[in-house]
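Hi support team,

I submitted a single chain yesterday and got back a structure, but I'm not sure I'm reading the token output correctly. Could someone confirm the output below corresponds to the sequence I sent? I've pasted both exactly as they appear in my results page.

Thanks,
R.
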Amino acid sequence: MAALTFGNLTSGSKTKVEGSLSISPTALVWTSRGGRILEIPVDGIASAQWLRVGPSATSFQLRVQEKDKPNPAKFDGFREQQREEIKSRLPDLEVVELCTQGHNWGEFALEGNVMMFTSGGRRVFDVPTSELSQAVIQNKSEVSLDFHLDDTVSKEAEVLMEIRLFVPGANTGDGPATKAEQLQQALHQQASLDTLQDNVAVFPDLPCLVPRGVHDLEMFPKFFRFRGKTHASKIMYSNVSHLFVVPRPLSTDAPSGESRNEYFVVALDPPMRQGNTLYPHLVMQFEHDDTMELTLNMTEAEYEKWPLKDQLALELKGPCHEVTSQVFSVLANRKVTRAAREFESKGIRCAYKANVGFLFPLDHGFLFIPKPSLYIRFQDVLAVEFSRVESGSTANRSFDLTVQTRGGTTQTFANMSRDVYQSLLTYIMLRKLKIKNLEDLQKAASSGTRTRAPGPPSAATAAAAAGGGGDSIANMDLPEDSEEDDDDFGGGKEPADDESSVSEPDGSASSVSSDSSAEDEGKKRKKKPSKKEEKKAPKAKRAKKDAKSDSD
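Hi R., thanks for writing in. Yes, this is the structure output for that exact sequence:
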């Protein structure tokens, strides 16, 4: 019997890969346009269903459930008249009628690895339990189902994220008090959301900054559970992109005996979702001196057969942050990143928008924690720029760093201490990042003039500011003063009427003369007349006018 071939089909997965399906008496063979082949033996098929999933003529779907697979294979794009051809190869093909009346009430049931919602005996929708991330009781009669974020779909695609079910009534049998709690318990068991069997390690009562609170961390071979008081999330290790361990800098006024804390950061892509909030990073905080002992949840015989035994010992002992990060690193197959060794302060206290936190220079990027947590890779950085760094001014005790990324966004980290400026500048130059105002710095270093470019004060300016040798105050590059400041220059004393004509014994003008001071400064300012001179001016005009009238 010849094989039947159907072209112009798409796989029913979220990625919608195009290809063709061939059905022979022995196997179903799916061939994508990229050349990928999926073969399903006919004797390995548990069930086959035919559904209409849309209004168009090519909106029929063939769903094939294998005996040893949790999720069915789906193929879209069939026409209605092709059903009989498929049935000739698959005699047990079942036609499923869907409910299209728009009902939002009905019955919810678990059939194998599928969550199914029906109304009036017809199926409304079904979702595999493997896609379920967590099931949370919102109130006594409401259950919220959250689903894993799929990083294989495009950013513009619409994907299922949450379903809320209203389950009224009390449970008359044993177990939970309400039917909503009974459904939640069944989902946890079916989707392995709440089971503790086969876990590798459990870390209870971890203090977390993001999301805030105390959480339990349960490590499984392929995923980990992050459980709080109200939410319990199942996160696959494939969603872990980076791991960080960085020290929290001590404050300047910290007691001498105080020990620092350690941050352990787990970067997630796609992020973890709790309600309407996305968490791209999990930030945990440990005391530096706290230690722990951990034995993996397996026997010695099981440990000998474990494929990761060469990377992780059966019994672990050490600081809490080191043990936790080591287990995470091995199970997630991710390297732990730490602060750059050559950077002296390790972490810089600064502000991002309205939040105060710490910026950690790493070997391949910047990390800002705790909230909002940001990780900026160097390969995504276009340029950086220093601001509020003036070589001729000692008033600014802090500076800002702006990072421009390739996505067109900029992040500004403000109010960094001037003590770390030189270290940060050296660090950025060693990483060969583009500094926008580096040319101004080089010009300032060669000319010695005042500039807003980043750079240390010149030797002459520093000496003058310290009161030592160097240029005089009149020749220093001072900021422009206001006219009111000029009136008070000289301790508030007003000059005498004939002070401007007073000469020294050698015939030169007095050094306190305002005219000579203006000449020494290159006539940069025009001195405002004093208040006494302003009062004399009207009197002089009246006296001149009276003298003219008398002569007439």
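A quick pointer for reading it: Residues 531-551 form the longest helix (21 residues). Let us know if anything else looks off.

Best,
Support desk
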